[in-house]
């Protein structure tokens, strides 16, 4: 139906009458409309109850972001930009180069890599004969990339979105960013691992989120302990998945799960519990090295010897004070083979002076066999890396900014081109063009004759530091009045030197 132009009473009555004839089922709806606005809505087919000529109900769309996702507003984006900048600068400082991979992969690439978390993978419909899934993390696509391109050595970072069909919760989404740093290649033991922990330390320190600890364990040590406790190798993965829940649920619930759901004998579980509760510094490594059962397990001793070397390197890097060796750290993903770690932020301490973890904000570890799963000849490329839990960091940073009352700038505009007199639109546009061409971030109000006070208020609300003001005299003299918004101090600057002066003041 054509858009209505004439709104006279006669035309409205005629057209609504025609609608009554064509849409007989809508007669009651039209009759019920008592006001001009209601009648116009009915005529424009905005009433959700009326049927169209084809007999189908028109449904108004539900305006909401999909479950497990969210929109990000300008102030949030400004905070996120600062966080991303800190993370990316750190990655580059350590010599990483950037890559990108597709947002979806062949389903078979992702299958069998995530243990019990595989149920969270988003599967897509058959796309032209290819069964695809949205990427669950950035690690598996990275190792596929290495195998496909026959790359045996690289230090890379990637910042991109991943997807998990998880139950949404506070700070937990189905679509979210990951910031990954990985070192691939054959190197001497624990040197790349120590650098990954150093990067984690640097990022969390620079973000100033609060006190944090980095928990470290080794899958080889965990496997050795499971063995000496009498747990069959066939149940290692499922037991690790249960242990991995200890940061969310207490030991007694994990114990019940292992006994009732995973059919393990209580005495074995209790023996395991004695080890799982251990955590500490270098002295714990020495203690386990001398423990009669653990010292007889080759895998466990390999891990403990590497721990001693790792601790030495971390002391040199100046991060050992934030490291705690924690046997309960399991990292449920199947592909980890060696050192694993997780950084947690700490809340205020308890009366007993024990720190309380308030959530993981970074994690990672060594995965030496994942590339070999994709290589036709099974050739492995040892890898170790970290992933920054950027979404949780965003939430904390946004909350801190809100509580501090900090004014968040959502643009990077350096100067507003303004005028105190009417009829200078084209002169403002010419000056604006000159500034843009000089690399200056500048803007103006989209009005022919804006009031100067309005322009100054806009600068204050947007946080723009400078105003370039022109008028009849300034145009005649070839100068611009440059005003500092905060101090209200003004100086005259020639047009030729304006860009240079702005750069000097805003650098």
From TrEMBL:
This is histidine--tRNA ligase. It catalyses: tRNA(His) + L-histidine + ATP = L-histidyl-tRNA(His) + AMP + diphosphate + H(+). PANTHER family: HISTIDINE--TRNA LIGASE, HISTIDYL-TRNA SYNTHETASE. It is an enzyme of class 6 (ligase). Belongs to the class-II aminoacyl-tRNA synthetase family. PROSITE patterns: AA_TRNA_LIGASE_II, PROKAR_LIPOPROTEIN. Its EC number is 6.1.1.21. Keywords: Aminoacyl-tRNA synthetase, ATP-binding, Ligase, Nucleotide-binding, Protein biosynthesis.
